[in-house]
Amino acid sequence: MNGHSRLSVLAVDADRPALEDLGKLLSNSPRVAETLCASSASEALRLFATREVHALFSEVRMPGFDGLELASVLNRFANPPAVVFVSPNEDGAARAFELGARDYLRKPVTQRRLEEAVARVSNPASDAEGGANTEAEPSLRRPVVGVHRLHDGATRIISLSSILYVSAQGDYVRIVTDTGRYLQRATITEIARRWKSYGFHRVHRAYVVNLRRAQEMRPQIGGTASLALVDGSEIPVARRHSAELRRRLRM
C-alpha cells in the first residue's frame, strides 16, 4: 500500500462488543475505505480467500485458533496483508513483532492511537524511527522489536540497529536507542541469547551492547574495562568478559 490508497481492512475479535468497537474506529478512519469484521480466525481466513484485504487488525488471544496463529498462516500468502495486533496486555508483543506486525495496540484503543497504526499500514516508509520513533516495515533484513516507551507506556516498534545498549531493570530491561529509552519485559540473559546473531554481546551481568555501535574499549584499574559507544556513553565491562570482547572487536 502507498500513502495515496485507501485500505480494505479486516477486524478480528471473538468478543463481540470489542469487535464492534474496533470496527467502528476503523470505519471512522479517513484512510480506510472498507471495514470487514470476523469473530474468529477461521472466519477471517474464509474472508481472505474471497476478498482483497490490505490489513488485518486482530486480537491476540482468541479461543482455539488465535491471532498469532492467524498471522503466521497469512505470512505464507503470496501477498500477505499488513498485520496490527490488539490486546489488553503485552504478553503477545514479542511474538507479534517476530511475525512482522506493523503495530501492537493496547485495549482500550483510542482513535488517535488507531490512526497511528493505520498510517503505518498505509504508508510505512514515512514512519521510520527518525520521525515517529518506530520502525515501520519489519523484515528479516531489518530486524525489529516491540518495546514500551518510558514516558507514556505506549507500545512501539524499533529497529535493532538503532539500539545502543540494554541494561537490566528487575523484571524488565531498559533499551537505549539513538532517540529514546524504552522498556521490555525480559531478562538480560534472554536478550543476550535472542539478539546474539544480530551483533549484540553481553559485557556485564547487567549490560548487553550492540557491538556495531561501539567505538573503543578502555582499560580500567583492576582488570575491568569500559566500552565507549558512538553517542559518548560508556558501558562497564566485567573482567570475565574483557578478553572475549577484545577478540570480538578485532573481528
Can you walk through the features of this model?
- This protein is of the alpha/beta class and 251 residues long.
- The chain folds into two domains: 7-126, Response regulator (Rossmann fold, 3-Layer(aba) Sandwich); 161-250, Beta Barrel (OB fold (Dihydrolipoamide Acetyltransferase, E2P)), CATH 2.40.50.
- The chain has helices at 16-27, 41-50, 67-74, 93-98, 111-122, 129-132, 188-194, 239-250, and strands at residues 7-12, 32-38, 55-59, 82-87, 103-106, 144-149, 155-159, 163-169, 172-177, 181-185, 200-204, 207-210, 214-219, 225-229, 234-237.
- The N and C termini lie far apart (41 Å).
- The model is unreliable at 126-142 (pLDDT under 50).
Task: From the structure above, extract its key features.
five-stranded parallel β-sheet, Rossmann fold, seven-stranded antiparallel β-sheet, 251 residues, alpha/beta
* Multimeric status of the protein: single chain
Radius of gyration: 20 Å
Distance between the termini: 41 Å
- As laid out across the biggest beta sheet, the strand order is 7-6-10-9-8-12-11
Can you give me a brief rundown of this structure?
The protein has 251 residues and is α/β, with parallel strands linked by helices. It has 8 helices and 15 strands.
